[in-house]
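Is this the right way to post structure tokens for a design question? Let me know if I should format differently. Anyway, here goes:
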């Protein structure tokens, strides 16, 4: 476990979390990366050092601190080509920021193409010694952080060329099994009878969501995406890529082993042979795998039943369409490309933040055209996002950087709640023809990324950037960050890495009997 002031070494290493050995891109040499833990009010100074060497994967990097507002430090948000150019091989970048008044469950991951799918993901926890819900639990430490991730046996740059990708394994705290694979080790969460545990669940997934449960144990939800909620009793919950929940588990069942289940939303997912599973083990229980079967959930989490604990209520006039700024975004997908309001995103050649600091002040000056929304400061924004096309199946997790928002209408629900909705930073857009509606206040200057948190969709279409108050953005941008633009733009293809990824994708498609023209995107 690391503190808020630390070096974070990014390097390549062969690992076998499910028994299949492959090279990975890792923080601190482990998957998931080391937990970064802090106390509320701490200042962060994390020096990311790039020691990547594997030519089959990207050799530059960036790190995003998911859920941290970066108020006044937009340059430290870590999004490649939005707030910075990637950190080139053998270079480092110090991310210095404060998480003002924030406490809860967060995480960090690469935000450069699909690099996080090769392993650069880890937990970031900010503890609050004055947590108003601390009376509900006894234990809250590094042993109660539970990470859920999909894992691939092929490197992400090769999978980028495939129209359809699917994870091979679900890893819980970095361990798992796959169909036809070895009987590899499963993660174990140890508990003591009579104790109450705050489990911090983090879906650090590249693609699927998970249905999470612990056999014969109810869970009390007390946090969603870094925001405390009114306690809510459930026996299972859906958690989408990027989302986090804190749940309290009361270890009140007979001393034994119990299945921890995280069924991935992937074809033919199963619990057979310990897939999609870990073990909850009471002290005193034998070292053995549980033998119980899954039971039907009777109290699943329903998002509309979650309510913010502190200062509940959406900002602005409590009526649909009555915010200061009302936005409508219709999302479609055609032939593998995403469109928002019929516009496909074109990645900028220069990070948006650098464009702003170099003198751009109007939306039309901020490339790419049609993908940047400039919002006035200190206004209430209401965004309606509609899943408008049959090819966009969903549910798709939408994440807004730099803010939390009130979910005044959850996807698949016809009612609105402006009085006490859940407040979070990742929300489902829903299935075909469904919509979600969120509200937030433009009180944090900078270019902020709004996107689907399924990584494969980022490479198919990066979503809009939402800058605000261009004239008041801090100019305290580290000179090293400006130099990175020059360094990155001077890299050769060999220095960037992944030169042979398309040929490897073709070989993989042919070996698996697929038609290249159907299985792969065109090589452009």
């Amino acid at each position: 476990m690391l503190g808020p002031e630390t070096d974070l070494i990014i390097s390549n290493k062969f690992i076998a979390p499910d028994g299949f050995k492959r090279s990975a891109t890792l923080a601190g040499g482990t998957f998931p990366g080391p937990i970064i833990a802090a106390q509320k009010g701490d200042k962060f100074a994390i020096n990311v050092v790039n020691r990547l060497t594997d030519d089959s994967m990207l050799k530059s990097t960036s790190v995003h601190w998911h859920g941290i507002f970066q108020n006044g430090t937009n340059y430290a948000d870590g999004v490649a080509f939005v707030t910075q150019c990637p950190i080139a091989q053998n270079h480092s970048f110090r991310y210095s920021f404060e998480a003002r008044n924030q406490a809860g469950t967060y995480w960090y991951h690469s935000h450069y193409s699909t690099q996080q799918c090769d392993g650069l993901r880890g937990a970031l926890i900010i503890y609050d010694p004055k947590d108003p819900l601390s009376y509900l639990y006894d234990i809250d430490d590094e042993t109660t952080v539970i990470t859920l991730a999909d894992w691939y046996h092929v490197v992400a740059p090769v999978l980028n060329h495939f129209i359809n990708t699917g994870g091979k394994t679900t890893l819980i705290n970095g361990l798992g099994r796959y169909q036809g694979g070895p009987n590899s080790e499963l993660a174990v969460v140890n508990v003591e009878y009579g104790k109450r545990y705050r489990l911090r669940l983090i879906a650090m997934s590249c693609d699927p969501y998970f249905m999470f449960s612990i056999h014969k144990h109810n869970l009390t939800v007390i946090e969603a995406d870094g925001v405390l909620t009114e306690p809510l009793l459930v026996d299972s919950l859906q958690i989408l890529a990027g989302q986090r929940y804190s749940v309290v588990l009361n270890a009140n069942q007979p001393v034994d082993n119990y299945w921890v289940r995280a069924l991935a939303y992937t074809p033919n997912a199963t619990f057979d042979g310990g897939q999609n599973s870990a073990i909850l083990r009471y002290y005193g229980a034998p070292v053995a795998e549980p033998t119980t079967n899954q039971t039907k959930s009777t109290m699943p989490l329903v998002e509309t039943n979650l309510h913010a604990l502190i200062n509940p209520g959406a900002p602005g006039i409590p009526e649909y369409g009555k915010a200061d700024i009302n936005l409508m975004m219709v999302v479609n997908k055609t032939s593998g490309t995403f469109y928002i309001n019929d516009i496909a995103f074109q990645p900028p050649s220069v990070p948006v933040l650098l464009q702003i600091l170099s003198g751009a002040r109007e939306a039309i000056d901020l490339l790419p055209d049609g993908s940047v929304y400039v919002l006035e400061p200190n206004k209430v924004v209401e965004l309606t996002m509609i899943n408008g096309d049959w090819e966009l199946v969903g549910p798709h997790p939408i994440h807004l950087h730099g803010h939390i928002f009130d979910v005044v209408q959850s996807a698949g629900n016809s009612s609105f709640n402006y009085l006490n909705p859940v407040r979070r930073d990742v929300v489902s857009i829903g299935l075909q023809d469904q919509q979600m509606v969120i509200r937030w206040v433009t009180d944090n200057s900078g270019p902020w990324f709004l996107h689907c948190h399924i990584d494969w969709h980022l490479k198919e279409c990066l979503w809009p950037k939402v800058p605000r108050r261009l004239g008041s953005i801090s100019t305290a941008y580290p000179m090293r960050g400006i130099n990175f633009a020059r360094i990155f733009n001077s890299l050769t293809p060999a220095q960037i890495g992944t030169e042979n990824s398309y040929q490897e994708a073709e070989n993989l498609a042919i070996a698996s009997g697929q038609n290249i023209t159907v299985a792969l995107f065109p090589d452009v």
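Format looks fine. Someone answered above. Worth noting: Confidence is low (pLDDT under 50) at residues 460-465. Helices lie at 156-159, 352-357, 455-460, 479-489, 493-496, 501-511, 516-519.
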